[in-house]
Amino acid sequence: MTGPAASIPQRGPAGAALRGVRSVVRYLNAILGGEDYTRYLDHMRRNHPGRPALSEREYWRERHAASERDPKTRCC
């Protein structure tokens, strides 16, 4: 194995710590909506192939505007 991946530990305490950090990052990303735009793009490709998708900036603007219009969608 060569390149940057060769220096990443796979086993032992360092590898376990790295896997733990990656798990926490994935968990926080899911909670904070980091994958929402990707899911939106997948939905648009599957269900609306002829329609252009919003840019990421437009998507988040619309999503925040929708939460302001309908406060029931908020968690608090």
UniProtKB/TrEMBL annotation:
Domain of life of the organism encoding this protein: Bacteria
Pfam families named in the record: Sel_put
Record InterPro entries: Sel_put
Protein name listed in UniProt: DUF466 domain-containing protein
Species this chain originates from: Nocardia stercoris
